[in-house]
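Example complex used in Figure S2.
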Amino acid sequence: MSPSPLVQDLVIAGVKIAVVVGALLGLFSLMTWIERRTLAFMQYRLGPNRTGPLGILQPIADGIKLFFKEEVMPAAANKWTFLAAPVVAVATALLAVAVLPYGPPFTLPAWGLLPEWLRGRTLQIQIATIDVGLLFIFAITALGVYGIVLAGWSANNKYALLGGLRSSAQMFSYELALGLSWVGVIMLAGSFQISDIVNAQAGGFWRWNAFLQLPAFLVYFVAATAEVARIPFDLPEGETELVAGFHTEYSSMRFALLQMAEYINMITVAVLAANLFLGGWHSGIPGMPETLAGFPLGFVWWGLKVSIFLFVFIWLRGTLPRFRYDQLMHLGWKVLIPVAAVWILITAAGVALLPGLFPVASR
Amino acid sequence: MDAILFYVFAAIAVASAVVVIGQRNPMYSAFALIVTLCSVSVIFAVLGSPFIAALQVIVYAGAIMVLFLFVLMLLSVKREEDTPGRGGRTLRGVALALVTLLVLQAGAVLLRHGTEPAPQFDASTRKMAQILFSAHFLYVFEATSILILAALVGAVVLAKKEL
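Predicted assembly (526 residues):
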């Protein structure tokens, strides 16, 4: 006897949430180690290599350390907002991942372990499939600013306040460029849904938006780097001027939460980049088989593309110096936004007049 | 299910709206306003227009309220002091709110034909775009954008004494 469809959907949704959130938290701690090791190698150092084989248990050690540290709150801090700010940051970071597709749709095999009603069912690792997927992400990133604003303001510390103001000004400015860079992609796919946008790029690598929408891709990449405040845009944390920016006064687990929100946002923009511009789970090689021995190869392509983006973020950090604040604002408002806006006009004209160069997905 | 969601979020919206005007600390008022805007967005989503719901959050909660908070943070506004004559103004405000409520309610009753429920309306993204960019609303839409542009230029001129 199989349970009612509502129960089935609830079970599937619950498993998906557990898988995605679990994987993200695992990836977050792994990323901290990968980042430190990679940076160390780029700078002729070894990095953390003492805890466990190659130092891979370092994140666990860090976690334990942060967990047992005393939590300090400034006496003049605004208590509730101070406590709530990291929660807001993590909640918005985790909300945005709900509408992202992670890999291709796959059909469950008829394993004996699976209950009857799950066998042969086609699923996609995506928690919520909503029509306005991209807009939802945009809305949630817009709300993500509040975590930082609140953290900076509530500590009642000059450096934290200035850091919070800078961060929010930066996120606010680059969000616009980020959103504008998606418009051409949306026009070509004819849908706000990310899986539709991925499928619009099927058929070969020349259909990838990274090539069809090269200016939008470049704008997206720069804006996304700034949006997640990575070097060269990590002004909010410019330690020589602002101590540690908006999280100056945070310690212990709340500091870890803010850190986690940053890494999850970084993973989100990497996943978005792979899905929107690099064809997601499509290999891009014509004639490539979809599955190998029953395993959908799409996961491999998708994982590879996301990893490349994550690596590039670390690579940039090991390579580039930091922007000055006025340069940052100049780049955002006077370069990226005009480029993105003009490119929207070009794409719109191209969709209408040159369908060969701007192929719209057939729906 | 929809009805439950509607009532829950309508209650949150109204309650936080009351906090917006009742709170003496402007920062808390701003936070409460953000909660109101987000709950209104959920109501839009329940009514079947995720597009408007997303826009509501992006434009109001994401852009306008961030600017509000910016100004409040930069000026470091203190708690509002009690001013004389506050009681009378509160009374006048409540009266005005009641009159507005009555007018809106009367309008809703007058405009409704008979007792049948409101017709299902299509509020999908495609439909929205067709309505906004058709001949019917196009001029209004463009006029609004020119108005906003004019306001923008005006703000720059006012803020920058020397260009």
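Residues 105 and 124 of chain A are 4 Å apart (CA to CA). Chain A has one domain: 72-103+130-353.
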